[in-house]
Specification:
The protein is an alpha/beta fold. It has a single domain, classed as Dihydrofolate Reductase, subunit A, CATH 3.40.430. The strands form two sheets. Strands 5-4-3-6-1-7-10-9 form an eight-stranded mixed sheet. The chain starts with a strand and ends with a strand.
């Protein structure tokens, strides 16, 4: 079965955005394993806010990946993007059961928390940046119980960034 991988940048103090939604602190000076990661996925899951951010940044939603946005408030999505308005866990279970490569849970924190509550986040791939933001959007929101992961790998970079991979126990 395919894995859902929450792959995201996070500060040392556990934030994925600064207090004003900024992510200018994220390193973009080298690949940091993203090419290899992109080769292992064929599907991307977005929460509404992450999807809107991707649109704002000019993200192309090409046919090389399946794209799903989860939102109760949106009425339409871009071409090649499937809008899912309800029964989130049922849809994600069906996506996981379908043939294909792994699935990137692009964001956001609310969607990640919801899927974690259902045991649907199989792997965490955290790009831990050497910065303390002090405040912002936390890595997870609304997680209602403990979810145990085990360390799979750690990849340090000369910039101080580390990629930490955990898999669901």
């Amino acid at each position: 079965m395919r894995k859902v991988v929450y792959n995201c940048a996070v500060s040392l103090d556990g934030f994925i955005e600064g207090p004003n939604g900024e992510f200018d602190w994220c390193f973009a000076d080298q690949d940091y394993g993203m090419s290899a990661f992109m080769a292992r996925i064929d599907t991307v899951l977005y929460g509404r806010k992450s999807y809107e951010l991707a649109l704002k940044m000019g993200q192309a939603f090409g046919k090389e990946h399946e794209h799903y946005v989860f939102s109760t408030t949106m009425t339409e999505a871009a071409e090649n993007v499937t809008l899912i308005k309800d029964k989130v866990s049922e849809h994600v279970k069906a996506i996981k059961a379908a043939p294909g490569k792994d699935i990137w849970l692009f964001g956001g924190a609310d969607l990640a928390g919801s899927l974690m509550n259902e045991g649907l986040v199989d792997e965490l791939a955290l790009a831990v940046h050497p910065i303390v933001l002090g405040q912002g959007k936390p890595l997870f929101t609304n997680v209602q119980h403990r979810v145990q992961y085990k360390l799979e790998s750690v990849q340090p970079y000369d910039t101080g960034l580390i990629i930490v991979n955990y898999v669901l126990k």
